[in-house]
């Protein structure tokens, strides 16, 4: 099947009543781990990278690695730009072959958020999905905190979705990036946002949310849940444990393959938590 567009992943999830995980990659171990979990579960998925994590490789390497691995996979998977902050992020990732785009201008005032999101819409082909953000999700992503932190205002949702022409709306309803204690989604607020939104919703910060809330997101019009910290931690933990067990360890391939397995386990668990009916 190979890479598909973000719209295909959304449409398939909506028609099958599924929630897509969106998992951040940085390197080959993470990519291999994610795709193995996708094959194990058969759930359509986003693989994504943020500009802050593309500094090592650039978008082209990420595209080459992901698309090559997906060439033999029979499950729809899109390659998504996570937290594009500038129009250059959007055009560079599209030029590399990405099939789904997030423009995150949520750090700006409402009017500038709309205008930048509209420009991203003009750059993004209609057959690809565009995700935009209203309200600003807190917490730390790659050691960068948001410029401001604000919950999504349900009164702004309908007009924002209409004006931007986006297919996905990322919302700030108590969810935060990374690990923070006692994080919970405000389900009353999420319900109000859902009722105002003509498009499916996206929840960032999936690593820190309680499993019982993740398992219910499908009932709130959520179709995409971002998970990054869990995978990164699984990779780092694997190497840390190998070193702690033997400071003279030199089998990089053995530890790298252990990392792939650890990442597969984390991703598969998250996909199953998001889709309890999979059993
Ligand atoms: Zn995010």
Automatic annotation (TrEMBL):
It comes from Paractinoplanes ovalisporus. PANTHER family: D-TAGATOSE-1,6-BISPHOSPHATE ALDOLASE, D-TAGATOSE-1,6-BISPHOSPHATE ALDOLASE SUBUNIT GATY-RELATED. Its cofactor is Zn(2+). This is Class II fructose-bisphosphate aldolase. It holds the Pfam family F_bP_aldolase. InterPro entries: Aldolase_TIM, Class_II_FBP_aldolase, FBA_II.
